[in-house]
Amino acid sequence: MMTDPIADMLTRIRNAVRVERPFVDIPASRVKRGLADVLKREGFIWDWKEEKLEEEPVGYLRLELKYGPNGERVIQSIRRISKPGRRLYSRSKELKPVLGGLGIRIISTSKGVISDREARRDKIGGEVLCEVS
After folding, report:
1. DSSP E strand boundaries for the chain
2. What does the record note on quaternary structure?
């Protein structure tokens, strides 16, 4: 059993991007669906879909990774911020833009999983899950 499924998801994405895979498969959960949805809305992946195999109890998410016209990575870095041993929460006023607006932080809020831009716009704070640039 893994202790941090979100870190596992981010590591799978990071590894797939490094070897330029067109997609990556990740075990599904509600938070991971939210993360994938934010990555799609913010333009870091093309799309995602959930698939379920009959012999497996848990479905999985297939993320279609995005690359530039010359094969350059859209996701340059992706890292976990709030960890199981050290949770990090931020108010909306404390959420500063990542790389001058070129990157995002993904926040888990009472309204679901959203980007830092949406959190600032809606004036909602929450747990800072990760940072993508």
Report:
1. 23-27, 45-51, 60-65, 78-80, 89-90, 104-109, 112-115, 126-132
2. Part of the 30S ribosomal subunit. Contacts proteins S5 and S12.
